[in-house]
Design goal:
With 217 residues, the protein is α+β, with helices and mostly antiparallel strands. It has a 6-stranded mixed sheet with strand order 10-11-12-9-3-13.
Length: 217
């Protein structure tokens, strides 16, 4: 844990990556045993599912018009704030619009703590940055039937004419909630909370039944 004191404000930052090498990190879907499902294979699968496990997730809140916030994000992450319902990416780092004053950043495993520190040092204005890496996970969904399958899971119109590549929405996913982003013509990412990860995974398996699916690990 690091502690920064500025203008009578104490900011405590905790690195969620354990320093003890013997401690094994487990993703929210660890108990789903995705490796065993992947080994079963399905050569006719219309859909491929993959958990991008253990990415670092940071939630940033602030004023999008604030010059210091915009400059800090650009200088540290090489990203500009995306427009409403949009996203931007630079290598392994992706920023998603969540609400007018809230954005979600994902970055490579083990890099979130350093990114948070650099952003705090670079931004000289009122902001909130919260590391939520342990509280959610990202599922990648691709294949020729990906869009048709996902129509079962969310009431939002995900047809490519309404949801082009790069667009991101927060919507219902079954009876849970998810952040959904189109990353390709037939490719999506779905970010779900840890407490709903098993439910969402089982929902996906059921929804994929008529199309066939394979799991990539």
């Amino acid at each position: 844990m690091s502690e920064v004191i500025a203008e009578n404000t104490i900011v405590r930052q905790m690195n969620q990556v354990p320093t003890d090498a013997s401690v094994r990190a487990e993703s929210p879907l660890f108990h789903a045993d995705l490796k065993s499902i992947a080994e079963q294979g399905n050569t006719d699968a219309g859909i491929t599912l993959q958990e991008l496990a253990l990415l670092d997730h940071l939630v940033i809140r602030g004023n999008a018009a604030d010059a210091s916030l915009k400059a800090g994000l650009q200088s540290i992450a090489g990203l500009a704030f995306p427009a409403n319902l949009q996203s931007a990416e630079n290598g392994d780092t992706v920023i998603r619009w969540i609400s007018p004053d809230e954005w979600l950043i994902t970055t490579a495993p083990g890099t979130g703590f350093e990114l948070e520190q650099k952003l705090r040092d670079a931004i000289d204005s009122h902001i909130a940055i919260v590391n939520v890496s342990g509280g959610q996970t990202l599922l990648n969904i691709s294949g020729k039937d990906a869009e048709e399958m996902l129509r079962k899971t969310t009431p939002y119109d995900i047809h490519i004419s309404n949801m082009p590549v790069g667009k991101v929405v927060t919507s219902l996913f079954g009876k849970a909630q998810a952040v959904i982003r189109r990353t390709g013509e037939q490719e999506f990412e779905v970010i779900v909370r840890r407490s709903f990860a098993d439910y969402c995974w089982l929902w996906l398996q059921d929804a994929c039944g008529e199309f066939g699916f394979t799991v990539k690990t």
